[in-house]
# Entry
Amino acid sequence: MTPSERLAALRNHYTDVVRVNETLTKQLRSAEQRRERLTDDVDRLKRENETLKTSSLYVATAEELTDDGIVIKQHGNNQEVLTEVSPTLRGELDAGDRVAVNDSFAVKQILEAETDARAQAMQVEQRPGTAYNDIGGLTEQIREVREAVEQPLVQSDQFDAVGIDPPSGVLLHGPPGTGKTMLARAVANQTDATFIKMAGSELVHKFIGEGAKLVRDLFELARQNEPAVIFIDEIDAIAAKRTESKTSGDAEVQRTMMQLLSEMDGFEDRGEVRIIAATNRFDMLDRAILRPGRFDRLIEVPKPGWDARKQILKIHTREMNVDDSVDMEEIASETDGFTGAELASLATEAGMFAIRDDRTEVRTADFHEALEKVGDDDDTTGTPIAFA
# Structure
């Protein structure tokens, strides 16, 4: 071979070597990546294996601490066992605490007190925007609510000086839409106390004892965060008159009501916990829940009169661009039988008519057209207004 042929052969061989090297480098990189994935899989499987080999812990209650150990009662089967506990945990353990035990009933850790998460979710974290000046025509009702709920929390010394116990509960009753819930929202806005709200229907559950347990947890949450205000809307859902019904559903509702009665006026002092309840079916309530000591004040929230309707209309139109010619006294006269909620709906509907005509100012004609939507018969005055 000539020198030039030999050189060309070497160059071809070098090119082949470079190509093979690149191929092997790619294969090596791929193998390393696969090794990393397999390593991750091995670590994950090891963790899962360790988890599977770890024995489960069971929830129990420490019933009694003795010199020989601790008596625990396991939840579910109520089995009582005398077992040992480490000196470190024993110093922190009290009778009644929840603990976690293993298969050998050895206490492994102390658990927090049991509280239903639904009860914690009912605590109001953000104050409502409703103030007392947003409620029209209920001057007397506002005064009575503030005397029964606010003053005992902020002026407790004055009650001690007079020598009386403050009212323990307030029941607001009246037709729908008259402002009962707004009063409760205003109390939540004004006081610094913990505010817990619920609907009566939330306390009605299918399984035996579940509703009563939720009631206990709610009052326990209130006692832990004193001073506190509990608001129960539509209380007639659980506090209706007791009957001789034998159905399991009615029996469970009555059990829940009896637990509520016990918490409201039971053997233990309720502390700085005030109760506000609301219902539009006062005639349905059981006499037991209406007696003094549970609800010391029964406050009726009626449909607004002429002066109240005028105040309510001014409140709901103060942010509206209303023409100066609109006479609220005239509109108040034409809305006899309307509730506060219906008057608010009337003002909104009048604004809708202005928007429909591509105007930014609400006129008297808009209010008259909104009133006509109620119906042609006088008997329909005061019925809820449907939006267009």
In short: The domain at 119-300 is CATH 3.40.50.300 (Rossmann fold).
